Protein: glutathione transferase
Amino acid sequence: MLTVHHLNNSRSQRVLWLLEELGTPYEIKKYERTPQQRAPPELLAISPLGKSPVITDGSVTLAESGAIVEYLIGKYGNGKAVPTDSGYLDNLYFTHYAEGSFMPIVTQKYIFDFIPKQAPFFIRPILSLVFGQLDKQFVQPEMTKHLTLIEAHLSKSQSVWFAGGAEPTAADYQMAFPLEALVAYTPGSVGPSIKKFVDAVHSREAYSKALEKGGPYSYATM
Ligand SMILES: N[C@@H](CCC(=O)N[C@@H](CS)C(=O)NCC(=O)O)C(=O)O
Structure:
């Protein structure tokens, strides 16, 4: 049986969504984040970095969500989630861009916001000042470049999907997590095409089923 090792509020939500779209049977093993928002140590028993998602499928144990998405589409897709010829390069680019270039900046933004909030109250003002300045000088200018690139890409096609087709492909499964997080936390920072993309993801029946099975998720409501 295919098992998704699912951490709450994490990238493994994209794997559940994909499996529901493909109609592939699977089971979920759930893990809860610690108060420090880390994965619990039990995930280390499954994979050396102890991060989510990880899947186990017979003798295969696979981590890294991009690899998982490509593996699942290749093995269980039966022709689904495959881009058209004209969407091939966009699919390839955004499938890898999501974790390779975009997520690091999304994570930095989250951490710079999280650290002062978690600090003891007496050092919070100084940390807010320092991290606020770091964000303004280093993170936000990068974030603006990324959001401009993504908005420009999505707005040039009639399709809501990254590869321009009628159905989501690997790029969409990969791009959904960072974009839904940004829409949830900083809705004013994203453009209309990004919002339309996130709405399209959230209105998929398969996405709702994945939410039901995965449990509470901060970036979407059932
Ligand atoms: N690039 C990896 C990132 C994996 C990752 O950082 N997962 C997060 C959840 S979204 C995690 O497990 N965080 C908890 C921790 O690092 O302790 C992927 O796409 O699978």
Remarks:
- The longest helix spans residues 124-155.
